[in-house]
Amino acid sequence: xxxxxxxxxxxxxxxxxxxxxxxxxxxxxxxxxxxxxxxxxxxxxxxxxxxxxxxxxxxxxxxxxxxxxxxxxxxxxxxxxxxxxxxxxxxxxxxxxxxxxxxxxxxxxxxxxxxxxxxxxxxxxxxxxxxxxxxxxxxxxxxxxxxxxxxxxxxxxxxxxxxxxxxxxxxxxxxxxxxxxxxxxxxxxxxxxxxxxxxxxxxxxxxxxxxxxxxxxxxxxxxxxxxxxxxxxxxxxxxxxxx
Length: 243
Hints:
Elements: H1 2-44, H2 49-57, H3 65-75, H4 79-87, H5 92-98, H6 119-124, H7 139-155, H8 159-168, H9 172-242
Helix pairs in contact: 1-2, 3-4, 7-8, 8-9
């Protein structure tokens, strides 16, 4: 009887804790499979991390992953619809036109005329804006412009910095890591300089402003008052002496 009771208790405990352990293990496996880059993509496009895993399971490469989510967001459709059209052989531009997306959604303003691989795409945007509706972007142009927007807005850096990283690597996941490492080292230097600048401001205001107000104003007023008294006394004596 005791053995049966103990066995029943163990069975109950196992049934209580097993689902929690399984769900925790699943969450760990999903996070391990995604990686830092995929987490960043999920956060930027506001989709669950699990959806990123599902998209990659549909044989969408890392370079095309942000494009799928970008078009889905702009067209306000599920990412799977974009993937289905892509797997039927449609170009990124054909998919964009199908959902009524205009060329200006891919345009990212830059400070100078970029070179390869961005030069071809930006060559289209040299036209007057009234003619942008005639633009037709190649797949590589769409991929590069989407990466440019994603990385510059995610890291809050000028798009020219992303272009420099693109010159060092052809893969977006490597670009993501490269920019992240450089930004972290640059951020530490900026914070140190900012701290020194903040310390200099109160020193200047506390020394200069009070000295000018306390010394200059009373001295001028007291001298003028004494001069007036001296003049009035001198005039009085002079009059008395003449009399």
